[in-house]
Amino acid sequence: MIKLLALLTLMLSSANTSCDKERSLPETPPSRFERYTTDLTMYSDILGETIHYSIYLPADYTTATDKRYGVVYLLHGFGDNWGAWNDQWLHITTLIDSKEAAGEITPMIYVMPQGFNSYYVNRYDGSFNYMDMFTEELVPYIDRTYRTRADRSSRAVAGYSMGGFGAMILPSKHAELFSVSIPLSMSFRTDEQYMAEPQSGWDGQWGSIFGGVGLAGEGRLTEYYKEYCPFYFFNEQSAASFADLHYYFDCGDDEEQLLIANDRLHRQLRELGIAHEYRVRNGAHTSDYWHDAMREGLDYIECCFNGGTWPDGQNIATDPSYAGVELSETVGGAEVVAYPSAGYDKSKSNSVVYLLHDGLTKDDLHRMMNLWNVAVNTKPFIVVCIPSAQAGSDFATLAQAIDAKYAIAEDADRHFGAGLGSGAGLLYRYAAGEEARLAALYLFDGEVDVEATAPCSGTYYYIDTTDGGEHYVEAGELYERCKADGVPYDYRVRNGQSGADAAMGGFQASKSNLMDRIRN
Hints:
The chain is of the alpha/beta class. The chain has helices spanning 2-24, 92-101, 130-145, 162-173, 191-196, 199-210, 223-227, 230-233, 258-272, 287-305, 362-371, 388-391, 395-405, 422-431, 472-485, 500-517, and strands at residues 36-44, 49-56, 71-75, 109-113, 155-160, 180-184, 246-252, 277-281, 327-331, 334-340, 351-357, 381-387, 415-420, 440-444, 460-468, 489-497. The chain folds into 2 domains: 36-188 and 229-305, Alpha/Beta hydrolase fold, catalytic domain (Rossmann fold); 327-517, 3-Layer(aba) Sandwich (Rossmann fold), CATH 3.40.50. The longest helix is centred in the N-terminal third of the chain and has 23 residues, at 2-24.
């Protein structure tokens, strides 16, 4: 018995020693979690080849294991690949991180698939059915492989250039899968532009997809092309079917051709009553432009995924009190209110900004002067505000009286106009007259008639409107006419409706442009 107890004691001692040795060994470190992974693959039976993709996962993906996430598909442009959204130019993960850290967006899964040069649709002859692959294989694969919220209300598609076309077409044709569309600088054309494309460009980029290789003129406008062209599938008969899709598209005013098509589509959607957000900002077909566009684009996705209501306008908080000089006077038979800058000196040659408006209140005018920093600006200028109804039909005579009253220099580059609504229309007509002297004209939701009066080649035009503004058609037509005639311009479309509050956003956005043009 004693020998047996000794043996058991020895065995237990050996076991404890063994356990102690095992516990003293360092734990095997867990594999490192990478949020961004590229060169992942999925085999497509539909295409008969491997599809590459990159993915950016939420920071808490491996710790919050019971959590599911919305999915944003990011589509690249023509000639790019699945790594383009996070290459040395776009840096989408940096933007996502900063917005998450600021609490502006919640974590989501971002999928960046290989798009080839497919325009994200099936080829007309069935030889490369990319859209079928995307909707029937890729989306289900992502839902099986990652912890997604597998429903349309939690899926968005964003893209730039060719990817912008994909971001428009995939949700529009497959609303059962996607609820949010974010096309940036969407690559598509009007019929007239497609018919005018050089043959090599048409054949290589569009004809091989939509049919019509080797054809010219109207022959390029095949029935298959029309099936996937937004100008055709958005129509009176189909409008109601897009009611539960959320569209946000954005295009730079320095685009060579794309803004004409994007802007006309905005006008068409307005006429059809199809809800959407539309922006035109300063910029061209560049990665910097798309990166900046996604700042608001990500906010829009966040709002839609959470069932929120997107604000219909900007909140420009400005003080209606005014600390500068205000002159209420009768000039040339019109009741005007003038605001001289801090640098204004009646003994010197000054610049003038004629501001014609439709019923702005004193508080509105004060807010605008504060936005333009008139009271503290050291440049020698004065803003003369005139209600449109007071300006009369002969603004040239009134302008001469104002110049004499406030010691305005004679040279044309000392004269500027800023108009709202019908006031913008009056100044627009004045700028085309023989007696006009306007270096620049700032039009805010302007009621202009481009067919009756062409823009003046010697005047710079700053065209500002809102995507819900009353005079959106006129703004787009003026932009196109300036571009066609080689007249210098900038074109902006902001969020909002017509009215004083919307105009304040335009005043704020235009401040640096206007002040840079006013000379010391």
